[in-house]
């Protein structure tokens, strides 16, 4: 029975009951019986009117649905497109990026993935050339290693501002600006005359390319709905993972044949190609964008109104105008020179505060347990990755292996292959797990679509990842420690890559869903904390390897990883509902105030 038929049936039953009661009470009064007959007729008319109203509403719904389908894709005119040099893009901008067809969605995902490969490639491409750089600048390995650790540190800090700017300036503008800077800084790095200049240029180039680490996940959230976001995020992460997959091989080959400076020129060319690719292929995808300056101008200089609707002057200075002044000058407001200067000064100060101070407030999201524990475990995993990278370079370039730069570069292939396979198949697996959990819980909306929750992603896939990669670390450490055949530690590295990627993909996607209105902020916060950990790991890796050896170092890392991983998964399964609801309430309250 449809809702409309049910409503009519209820009204008829109520009308029949009313007539019977009225007849029983007024049976001795003929006049009132006649009035009851009239009331019955009116009731029938009311039923007919209600039925026609239901039919009219159904017709409106059908018409609205048809209209929405017909107007599903609304293209933005070329002269109204948002973003830097937006008229040049070949893919049209639309009002709702969810409406792109599947082909365009996956093409945009590919564009962002290619852009996302740049920063990780820059971090690991010089690993095989560290010894050559040390000799060129007559420095020490510890100092030259800072070119990697500080590169990672800049990748943690700069995304705070990139993500904040992307929510106001848009994604496209940030991509183009950051890659233009990346090209400039790598040119200067290629012509460095001392190790200090080289490290500074590495820091700046890492911060520039790091924009995609936060904004890229925001673009994926802009374009893909929740039900397909897991697979999309897995494909997106193929870019950042293909960087470490190919860069040590490229860096090793170029360092042996052309010298380490050729690596910097390669990054210049690669960054320039990505800039051109984004320029012509990536439209703006942010659903809403309020220009920062215009927003501030409106807040500070817009006239406020009194209870009668009269304009009283700028909102920021309404309290300085008395009721007597309003009565004397109800329609004319004079702004003094002092007020004008104050308005402009306040506007500039507010712009500076929002641009440089407010992005740091992202760190305050760590007060929420759901965010804090996810970021913490992700940071432990990421720092283990960079300690492993340093260990591979230090261990296999020394006796008993004594491999050259090219062979050392090839040794980074196994864990990168694990990343690659886990990204392709892990994303689909997570999407199926989410659908299964939603069906099991019977969560459907009024349209019959499944309702997904972020914590649904953390099931057997998370348990598997949190078990495999810590055990792989322990196996790698002891096989490298005793100098066994190189195949043994490389197999362990493959499983490390597979397990750690399962963790990375799940946690990063969860952060975009815990903070759906500020998806890039969640990813920026994650990058901020985990890259700080990776920076520390890159600095302390070599001294720790010398002090306690690969075996005990990676045993400690493995035990810390497996304990923290199991704790996070257990806590999320037990408390995630409460934490998520509590976080949403606090955020809504803060936004309302």
Question: Overview of this structure, please?
Answer:
The protein has helices spanning 3-25, 30-70, 102-116, 118-124, 130-136, 141-169, 171-190, 195-209, 211-223, 226-236, 238-257, 261-281, 292-301, 323-328, 337-357, 369-396, 405-410, 413-441, 460-481, 487-514, 519-592; strands spanning 303-305, 311-314. A two-stranded antiparallel ribbon has the order 1-2. It has three domains: 3-70; 86-289 and 368-592, Growth Hormone, Chain: A; 293-351, no CATH class. The chain contains 21 helices and two strands. It is globular, with a radius of gyration of 31 Å. The two termini are 46 Å apart. By secondary structure, the protein is mostly helical. 75% of the residues lie in helices and 1% in strands. Helix 3 runs antiparallel to helix 12 (261-281), helix 7 runs antiparallel to helix 8 and helix 16 (369-396) runs antiparallel to helix 20 (487-514). Mean pLDDT is 78; it is low at 22-43, 45-71, 289-309 and 311-335.
Key traits:
mainly alpha, globular, Growth Hormone, Chain: A, 593 residues, MFS
Overall shape: globular
CATH class of the largest domain: Mainly Alpha
Structural class designation: mainly alpha
The ordered string of helix (H) and strand (E) elements is HHHHHHHHHHHHHEEHHHHHHHH
The radius of gyration over CA amounts to: 31 Å
Q: Would you identify the regions where 5 or more consecutive residues have pLDDT less than 50?
A: 22-43, 45-71, 289-309, 311-335
